[in-house]
């Protein structure tokens, strides 16, 4: 697979799935439970980072205690998954995924969303057939995507890292790509501000179509 064209490793939340609005709503619902002030989209994009406890450190001015983290994480996910089914794919995402085959491009999906929740959602949107592999997070790690990327690429038998381009909405996607010797393109429509994405030192784009075009240029 992927000997002559880029192999794209897509991120899910905030990239293929247009769920940033749901994330903000869920965050604010969780904050209300914790007695915290609501956050705007702009502020969220300025502060958000992985590992997620560091996001809360930026928000609170200190690391949350283990008890606070457990409460905030649990509240966020309870509110988020109540909204997730109402989210749609990012504009043009389905068409880009379908077009990949005609261009001889392979693609897979790697997300930090729980695997058991991710797979049914991908099937629900009718796009599972366009991926050679779909992997979500297993276990309770908050350390980011790098080690998950190692396992993901290992499972993609025959795809060398130099042909791989990760497309995501977070600086952590670029970190994970670099960890395995792959490239990355970051999309501004999700969790990070353009300024914070540009600090990752990889191409930053405003649409998924641009991301695919840049990915092909990086590998070609």
UniProtKB/TrEMBL annotation:
Q: Which SUPFAM superfamilies match?
A: HAD-like
User: Pfam families attached here?
Assistant: Hydrolase (PF00702)
UniProt xrefs under InterPro entries: HAD-like_hydrolase_sf, HAD-like_sf, HAD_sf, PGP-like_dom2
Specify the protein name: HAD hydrolase-like protein
